């Protein structure tokens, strides 16, 4: 990304950046198939951690690392986020029977919702975390940094945004849209490793250890990336129109 932005063959003085992809969402705040525009990007990894049993009960197990204040969180342009939300809020989103069935494993009202378009903080980092305990820590970090509720987990957006921010002529023109999967929290009564990374292998191991039998298949529907692409094209088309007319609807 940095090599592209610094290439003198390109003129990005009027460019807008849309970052899209798949992300996890906590069942208390999101559902499978939702699309979420990022309001804040918070780095999950930059800090110090210790095991809960090595701390006083109930106290945080995370402490921010000094010297990274400009890297660990970014607020995306609120006017641009609001404009994108108004443009896309009524976009029909695909759903599937397997996804609807999978949602019923969760008691949370948000997790059982049909796909929708929303906004919120996106946690970014190289650490794949899973389970309600780690999800609570992510929410703690988001609030510690002054962001709003975290609703998505992903990897690269903060790093890409830092590169864009450092590029010549940057004017807060980056946008972030992610399609949600119920990843950071497992259903009640289910072990975290039975629904996290390597879920099928982990479930077989848990059954062997507990004497259970059966197979069971993960029923979460595959994300529809074509919808994100269509939404990005719709946004890009609107940007061309508003920039051409320089009317009051332009977020620039």
Please describe what this structure looks like.
This protein has helices at 2-5, 78-88, 97-103, 132-144, 157-166, 199-210, 225-245, and strands at 17-24, 35-43, 47-49, 62-64, 73-75, 117-124, 150-154, 174-181. By secondary structure, the protein is α/β, with parallel strands linked by helices. Strands 1, 2, 5, 6, 7 and 8 form a six-stranded mixed beta sheet that branches. A two-stranded antiparallel ribbon has the order 3-4. The chain has one domain: 3-Layer(aba) Sandwich (Rossmann fold), CATH 3.40.50.
Helix content: 25-40%
CATH top level class name? Alpha Beta
Secondary-structure arrangement, i.e. CATH architecture: 3-Layer(aba) Sandwich
> What's the total helix number?
7
In terms of DSSP E residues, the strand content is 15-25%
| Count of domain modules | 1
Short structural description:
The protein has 252 residues and is an alpha/beta fold. Helix content is 31%, strand content 19%.
Name the descriptors.
single chain, 252 residues, alpha/beta, Rossmann fold, six-stranded mixed sheet, two-stranded antiparallel sheet, 31% helix, 19% strand, disordered C terminus
Write the layout of secondary structure elements.
Layout: H1 2-5, E1 17-24, E2 35-43, E3 47-49, E4 62-64, E5 73-75, H2 78-88, H3 97-103, E6 117-124, H4 132-144, E7 150-154, H5 157-166, E8 174-181, H6 199-210, H7 225-245
Parallel strand pairs: 1-8, 2-6, 6-7
Antiparallel strand pairs: 2-5, 2-8, 3-4
